[in-house]
Design brief:
about 70 residues; alpha+beta; five-stranded antiparallel beta sheet; about 20% helix
């Protein structure tokens, strides 16, 4: 898990990681208004902003990406 100050930074990292590591990455917002990238096996402590798979944001009922 890594923490970023902005959503765009976290989303960019998640897109890159999901593409190059061939894994699913979750981006979520913490109560402190930080953004975290995590693998699906990591605990999520906030609101999910997006889920990235193969370099793309995956539509999901859990996601609130606009």
């Amino acid at each position: 898990m890594n923490t970023y100050p902005t959503a765009s930074q976290a989303n960019g990292v998640a897109r890159t990681l999901s593409k190059h590591l061939s894994c699913t990455i979750v981006v979520y917002r913490t109560p402190q208004a930080k953004f975290v990238t995590a693998r699906t096996s990591d605990p999520v402590a906030g609101n999910i902003e997006g889920i990235y798979r193969n370099g793309y944001c995956t539509p999901t009922l859990l996601s609130s990406v606009h």
